Amino acid sequence: MAAPVDLELKKAFAELQAKMIDTQQKVKIADLQIEQLSRMKKHSNLTHVEITSLPDSTRMYEGVGRMFILQSKDEINNQLLEKQKTADDKIKELEQKKTYLERSVKEAEDNIREMLMSRRAQ
User: Fold this and answer.
1) In angstroms, rounded to a whole number, what is the distance separating the alpha carbons of residues 107 and 18?
2) Residue 81 sits in a domain of what CATH number?
3) Could you list the residue range(s) of the whole structural domain that residue 75 is in?
4) Roughly how many angstroms between the first and final C-alpha of the chain, as a whole number?
5) How many domains does the chain have?
6) What three-state secondary structure class fits 68?
7) pTM surpassing 0.90?
8) What is the dihedral of CA 20, 93, 36, 54, to 10 degrees?
């Protein structure tokens, strides 16, 4: 009877290891995305702060591809605020995804521990 138990445990450990590696990669990707979004948010915020200090009559251009388009100060400010809001929303989403992934790995580890404890008790 020891052989089937060992095979079952071995299979469970292999599944857990694969799940952990996959989850760790997803967590690293989420961290990188959060970092990138934080940088973009900070850049937008700094640009917004600088633009608000300029007079309303200042001509402002938005870079689009290889050209620049004349935009009003209000439009540029609205775009920057929208960028910051979008980045905040995505960061919150990624943080929730990250906590979910970490929780699922912990649950899988606990299941394996329970299986080991039940096998030892038998």
Assistant:
1) 14
2) 1.10.287.370
3) 33-104
4) 11
5) 1
6) strand
7) no
8) -170
